[in-house]
Amino acid sequence: MEKIALLNKYGLFDAKVPRYTSYPPANHFENGVGPRHQDSWLRAVPDGAEISVYVHIPFCKRLCWFCACRTQGTKTLRPVDAYVEVLKAEITKVRSKLPKGVKMARLHLGGGTPTILSADTMRDLLSSIFGAFERTETHEFSVEIDPTEASTELLDTLVEFGLNRASIGVQDFAEHVQDAIGRPQTFEKTARVVTHLRAAGVPSINMDLLYGLPTQTHQSFHATIDQVLKMCPDRLAIYGYAHVPWMSKRQVMINEADLPKPITRFELAELAQRRFVDAGYGMIGIDHFALATDSLFDADARGQLRRNFQGYTDDTADTLIGFGASAISKFREGFIQNAPSTSAYQERIADTGFAGHKGYVMSDHDLLVAQMVEDLMCRFAIDDKKLMAAFPDQETVIRQTVVSLMNEFQDLLFIGKEGLMLRHQAYALVRIIAKRIDDFTSVGESHSAAV
What we know:
- The chain is of the alpha/beta class.
- Helix content is 38%, strand content 21%.
- Helix 3 packs across helix 11.
């Protein structure tokens, strides 16, 4: 069957499905899971364990219209500096509950715009983090960098503290697209930041692009890809723009009539895939690309690719500690999300030192489904033998799931060396297949487009 016809048969161009950066998706977190669970789960982290840390900086000097992240605008750095003081208090409290032997394998600063911080404030924050957590020998320190808000002094401060992976948001370099999404950012300014980081010794550069943006065309996106490839990033991510104005009010600024049709979105994604693969990048999962020298490429080759709130990752830690407003922590026992607004977050830290607002306690069945979803998203397969070994009490459920999926998607799936496997031409449908085993999906639920 022709690829487009096959994808259309299973509703790819109309489907709305979760991105599955977590299971259950964060919109199913529950009230009543908060500081008490946070305290208990922190204490239960094994002594000597390696953990990952995420720090959310929810401030931007401009609010890009396309963004659906938890952010707020500010014209001065006073609220940012005050927020960092609260972050430091949260870090101290959380660290006091963890076993002494815990080490930090990953640190990621996201936002918002982490590079909005002054060099002095960033130095203060990083001193607090690295003072609280001993780093592992293979520690990775990454930061999301907005080239339009990244002073040379700030970049040098990040390098001073060991920055070894920079994640740079590009979205699209076409001026008419930038005008339509409220994000002016020139290629020249972006290239200067990349050149500075490389000259300073930062070994790895990531770049993020978006397809499906208003006024975006095949020709303009082709030109953007040309410019991105000139900067030779080590890793690339190409995400579909999620138009969710009911969640992100700023998106009402975007003219829906200017958005590409679903088939055009798919063609733009395919264009990027062809260009990146032709340029020597390996395709990782459904939307990441990496050079053979990148750790993500190696993790994929070894079957150790994982998926978390940043997308595909080679992070193997069982515990992720999230600091800041709306940040999410992941434990073996479940998820905890901090209060989303900065005011509520700051109040909770002042009251108890914890900001847990809602979350989810994982059952054994949830853990099984989470593993199946991650296996589909990362390996396009469900290995029933491995799952039965890991979840012996749920052998019947595993068998029933495999049979059910095989019956429903006969022309997409086959039995191979890794169990139930997805045919290559159907990889774009993986989120639709994952939704079939998702116990939390319901009719009428709002999600982003499947393509």
